[in-house]
Amino acid sequence: MSTARTKVVLVIPSSERVKVLRTAYSPPLGLLAIGASLLQATKNTDVLVLNGELYSTENALVEDIVAYKPNIVGISTNVGCYKTALSIAKKLKTQNRYLIVLGGPYVSTMWKECLKNRPYIDYCVVGDGEIPMVKLSNGVPPERIDGLAKRDFLGEPHLIPQIDLPLDSYPDPDWSLIDARVYQEAYRQTYKQADAISACINAMKGCRWQERSGGCIFCALLRSKLRQRSPERVWQEINRLYDKYGCNHFWELSDTIGCDIDWLRRFNSLKPNRPILFKGYLRASETTQESVKLLSTLGYNEVFIGIESGDNAILKAANKGSTVALNKRATILLRDAGIKTFASVVLGLPGESRQSLQATYDHVCDLFENGMNTLSVCIFAPYVGSRAFLRLLDDEKIGGQYRGSDVFDWPLFSRLWVQTQCICEWSDIAEYNKRLSSIPSSLYEDNFSYVEKEYDI
Ligand code: SF4
C-alpha cells in the first residue's frame, strides 16, 4: 500500500499595486480555511501557506514553493494580484509538472478566459475552495469535482458548478499554518496600540443587498446567496483565538455585519465577559439605533462605511441603496456611541459631473464636522466581476477589443469608464481626488500606481 503523502502549497501573491491599505496585517484567511479543510479531511496531506507580501521578491517566493516539493500548488487570485499569480504559475510549470490550481474571486469570474489563454494553469476553483481542493488532493478525478473548472477533451473550458454549502459545515481557519505574530505586529504598528493582539474572522459570505437588488454597480463579489455562520460557531472561534493566542482585537471581514439584525442580536446575546474589541464593515442603510447599540455593546471601536458620493442621483445610479441623509445619520449614530467611522468615497460613478463631485466634497466636509474620523478616497475602476465591468465591455468598441482577455490595464479601464459613463472630464475627477485626499484624516487609495515590473505571462 502506498504511503506517499500529497503536499499542497497554498499561495497568496503580493499585490501589484504600490499602496494597498490593510494588506500588511491581514493574514490570508481564505487559505487558512482551505488549509484547515485539507488537514482535517485528508489523512495523507501536508499543507504549507505562503504569503507573497512577506517576500522581498517573487523569485524568493517561487524558491520556497519549489523547496517544499509540492504535488499541488493552489494560488489565490484577486484583481490586485492576478498577473503575479500567472507569473508565479508559469515559472513553476517551467520548472516542474506541479499541478497548478488558481482560485479566489478573480478566476471565479474569469475561469473560462484563464483556461483558454493560460496553458500552464491546470484548473480553476470557482467559488469555495475547500471541497474542490480536498477532493483533488484525495485523488478524485478532476472531471468528477464540482466547482473545479477544467478543459474538456476538445480543450474547451468546462465547469460543473458546486452547490454552496452552509459555512458551519467547514472547519475554522487553521492559524497554526502561519506565524500570526508577523501580522499582529503590523497591526500594532498601524494602530499604535501596544496591547493589541489582532486576528481576522469572517462571520458571513455574501450581501443581502446584492441578493435583493443585484448590488452596487462596482460590487465584484461573486453572485451568491448570503451565507452566515451561526453566532455560536463564531464565538467558538473567537474564544479559541483568545485562549490560544491572547487575541483581543478582531477584524470582522463580512461585507456588512448589519444585514441581519436577528443574527446580530443573537451574536450580541452570546457575548462572553472578555475584553474583546472589533472592527468591521457596515452599510449606511443598516446603521440604525439598534444596530449601533448592539455593535457598541459587542465592543466595536471602528466601522467602515462606503458613503461613495454626496449626490443622491449618483448613489441611485450606482444602485448603492443609500442616500446622503442615511450617510449622515450613520455618522452621527456611530459618533454618539463612541464608534469611529472610517468612510470611503468613489469618484467617477455613473453620471458623475463637476456638480456631483462638489456635492461629494461638501458632504464629506459635513460628515467630518459631524464626527466622521477617517476618509479613504479612490477613483472608480470597473473591476472584473462587477456589473460596471460588464457594462464597459458592452460598449461595442471596448468590448470588441477586450472580450476574451483575462488581463486588463486597470488605470486605462478607469479612464475608459470616465470617458463613456461620466459627464465630466478625467481632469475634474483628478482635481477632486486631490482636494478630497488633502483634507486632514483622508487617505488616498492608489488605484493607479503599480509595482514597476514586466510580467512574463
Ligand atoms: S459593494 Fe458591498 S454593499 Fe454593495 S452589493 Fe457588494 S457587498 Fe453589498
Tell me the number of helical segments per DSSP (H or I, 4 or more residues long).
17
Q: What number is the mean pLDDT?
A: 93
What is the radius of gyration?
22 Å
Share of helical residues = 40-55%
Q: Output the CATH topology of the largest domain.
A: pyruvate-formate lyase- activating enzyme
Describe the biggest sheet? Answer: 7 strands, mixed
What strand line-up does the widest sheet have? 2-1-3-4-5-6-7
The CATH architecture classification of the largest domain is: Alpha-Beta Horseshoe
Strand content bin: 15-25%
**By CATH's scheme, which homologous superfamily of the largest domain applies?**
tm_1862 like domain
Provide the list of bound ligands, each named once.
iron/sulfur cluster
Note the overall shape: globular
Question: What is the CATH top level name of the largest domain?
Answer: Alpha Beta
Find the count of extended strands (DSSP E, 2+ residues).
16
Unreliable segments of 5+ consecutive residues: none
Domains (count): 2
Organism: Berkelbacteria bacterium GW2011_GWA1_36_9
Domain Radical SAM core: 193-428
Keywords: Iron, Iron-sulfur, Metal-binding, S-adenosyl-L-methionine
Protein name: Radical SAM domain protein
